[in-house]
Amino acid sequence: MNQKNASATALSLLTLTLFTGAQPAQATAILDVAEIGSYSQIYQINVPNAADYNGGTPSYGVNNAGSPIAGGINRIGYYLELQKAGGPRQWVWASMDAFTQNLGQIGVPVANTGAVWQQNINNLNVASNVGSIFTGSGISTGNIEFWHNCYATDNEVGVPGANGGNYDFGDNNNYTGSCYGSMQVHNYGAGQTLLAWNRWDGGGNGDLGIGNNPSGHPDWTFAGNAGQYTLKSMEIWVQATNHTVPEPLSLALMGLGLIGMGFSRRVGAR
Asked: What is the spatial distance between Cα 28 and Cα 261, in angstroms, rounded to a whole number?
């Protein structure tokens, strides 16, 4: 199958099987994540080097937040894919029991969404090709830090193991106004930031990372490293409460088409 046909097959299959009446997927996660078959994509965004959303709407490549999920949301999944020029492609997936039924509040938590999530999450599933990531299913020690505010290092809500002297998995967002911003998923039981995208509000180079930052604050705050990546994509998925798992043949066909689409994206990122 040539590149053109592979991409067309991927888009056709995805549109028909997952997103009828919604935007077509940009969905590398399908190639990597075993549990993705029962999920539907809500957002995808190519992370910019620098952003100042300041309450505005991020430039999503896919935005299906206006497409209701029949029966409600059972789980929410976040996928971050990063690659530097000439370097390996890295990815991480973190899914969890739904912490909201509002699709408008699971994306980048800019001010106009009203989303501020600083809480534990239940039944965390983690998959990754990064060796340092603690993977597994049903993890009970997950938490999220999603907000548009500035924040400090002190452990405001008492997350076990957090260091009040570092920006990590237990920080303080008790600040007014829209500045800096945090979108982080953690496994505090492993002392680990799973994925982070910070500084998308207020301007300046963004912070991006999978796993703990080895040379700075563990949650990548102040890293200013977004421009180092030629490929930086975030996808957000949900599983309906009344979900069905596609037949293996359907998944295989989707994967075959997406191999072509994923390959073309990665070549273009080099």
From this structure: 8
| Residue 157 near residue 168, CB atoms below 8 Å | no
Q: Is 235:41 a contact under the CB 8 Å cutoff?
A: yes
Distance of CA 200 to the CA centre of its chain: 14
With 0.70 as the threshold, say if the pTM is over it.
yes
Query: Which pLDDT belongs to residue 22?
Result: 57
Per-10-residue mean pLDDT for the chain, 270 residues long?
A: 36 38 71 96 97 90 94 97 98 98 97 95 98 98 97 97 97 90 98 98 95 97 98 98 63 46 43
Q: How is the chain split into domains, by residue range?
A: 3-269
Would you state the pLDDT for residue 79?
Answer: 98
